[in-house]
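Ligand-bound model needed. adenosine-5'-diphosphate.
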Amino acid sequence: MLCRHELDGKRAQRLTRHLAQAHFSMVRTLADFDFKAQPSVNPDQVRDLEAGRWIAHAENLLLLGPPRVGKTHLAIGLGRAADEADDSVLFVAASSLMVQLQQAHDTDTWDACLNRYVKPKLLIIDEFGYLPVPPQTAHLLFQLVAARYERGSILLTSNQGLVDWGRTLGDDVVATAILDRLLHHSQVITIQGDSYRLRTKRRAGMVSSRDPAPTPASTT
Ligand code: ADP
Ligand code: MG
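Prediction:
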């Protein structure tokens, strides 16, 4: 009993340390995700992803869809599951990642920066596409994606369809090169529909089904 107690304590400590190292933007788990409210997400697919084989095989996952449909929630839930399985995880907002890559390039700290983002088994890049990426930074993102290719998983969330990446990155050639590597061994989940909160309010009869969905500007 004492041994089990000790092991449980060690495990809990390790998880706390891993969660702190992952830098998730909010506390969310897959258990909190209401699949009934989001019928475009297949619970079996998420359960399969939760088992982590895609991370063991260094595959990627793209979660696409409009704002407030649960992309970041699912990303963090899967990240947490990976943490619990002792895989190293790092979560970063795409906008922050772009700034860090550019700064590292400009201040000769590129190798350390690249290493930070190549090392974890799972790198979560959240909210790609909300801000345009300067073309010189797009090249740095390509270097990161290329360095992780077939070595570590990337989970990327985006409100942009894949066809819009050329515009976001200001360069069609770089966009194609990045997508080529990201998509080679990957799953893409496209979440459709309204914001989660609007949907739950509708179900509760608090707003009419004719009310328009809020614009991204008013929901983020
Ligand atoms: P997105 O990243 O797609 O913009 P988020 O994951 O940030 O959306 O979701 C917005 C809020 O709604 C979060 O607080 C999230 O936990 C909650 N949410 C979204 N979808 C669901 C769901 N299906 N079940 C439970 N909570 C959800
Ligand atoms: Mg989000």
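The radius of gyration is 18 Å.
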